[in-house]
Amino acid sequence: MSILDVKILQDYIRMCNDGWLQGWHERNGGNLTYRMKAEEVEACKPFFKEPGPWVNMGVTGENLAGEYFLTTGSGKFFRNVILDPEHSIGIVEINEKGDSWRIVWGLEGGAKPTSEFPSHFMNHSVRVKATDGACRVIYHAHPANIIAMTYVLPLTAKAFSRALWQAATECPVVFPAGVGVVEWMVPGGAEIAMATSEQMKKYDAAVWAHHGLFCSGPDFDITFGLMHTIEKAAEIHNLVMATSGGNVRQTITDDNLRAIARDFGVTINEEFLD
């Protein structure tokens, strides 16, 4: 038996490959982190190596002290995760202060966690608090249609949430709070990490202008499904705009959105309705 026989590793690798097959991860684009359950850590510990040195992240999440995360590697390609997991992904341990990580498995050959690990870490911190510990997955990808929308819509949560809700009937059910939006920033640093985490206090997903999308959830299916739903709605929106020249004849109205929320038992964000 190897660590790759542990189910959580298999599920994590499958999600990486699913994202690659969707076309969301050109070259080394995108990253995925998962906050491991205690029993998953115990199943993996027999395969841990001598820990690497502690590396400070420049951000702090005290509520994540002592946690373990599965993470993709910096500069690594999603298309290679299924072929060479030991060099493409790894497990890191967080220190008692919640401000540093060290590698305990994988990321062989001198690899490091994704350069956007600070953004993931801060998003985990706020989502753990917002969901009473339920959130375990943070997923960042580069879906083309949602990125395209950031060039034409106002960079506000209301503009994006309404456009996506009106693009597909399932959207107000899947993300009734809406989606956040972060204006363009250089990726990988503390500034964008803090800006994104502010949005994730209120939303399950946040759009990065001209860059991509961050999604969160309790497991891989829910998180991947959220990303997939948002990107499909963005594709529909863009097709409608291109086909009609922006002259939309009919759409899902605000009263329709309220009716969907009522019948499916979700609370839609009324701030975004007229």
Q: Which radius of gyration do the C-alpha atoms yield?
A: 19 Å
Would you tell me the structural class of the helices and strands?
Answer: alpha+beta
Spatially, the strands of the biggest sheet line up as 2-5-4-3-1-6-9-8-7
* Percent strand: 15-25%
**End-to-end gap:** 58 Å
Q: List SSEs in N-to-C order.
A: HEHEEHEEHEHHHEHEEHH
Please report the total strand number as a whole number.
Answer: 9
Kindly report the average pLDDT value.
Answer: 96
Largest sheet: 9 strands, mixed
User: What general form does the structure show?
Assistant: elongated
SS field, number of helical segments: 10
In percent, how helical is the residue content?
25-40%
Question: Unreliable segments (pLDDT under 50, ≥5 consecutive)?
Answer: none
Helix-strand blueprint:
Blueprint: H1 7-22, E1 31-35, H2 38-44, E2 55-56, E3 68-72, H3 85-88, E4 89-94, E5 100-106, H4 117-130, E6 137-141, H5 144-149, H6 157-167, H7 171-174, E7 180-182, H8 190-200, E8 205-208, E9 212-217, H9 220-244, H10 254-264
Parallel strand pairs: 7-8
Antiparallel strand pairs: 1-3, 1-6, 2-5, 3-4, 4-5, 6-9, 8-9
Helix pairs in contact: 4-8, 6-9
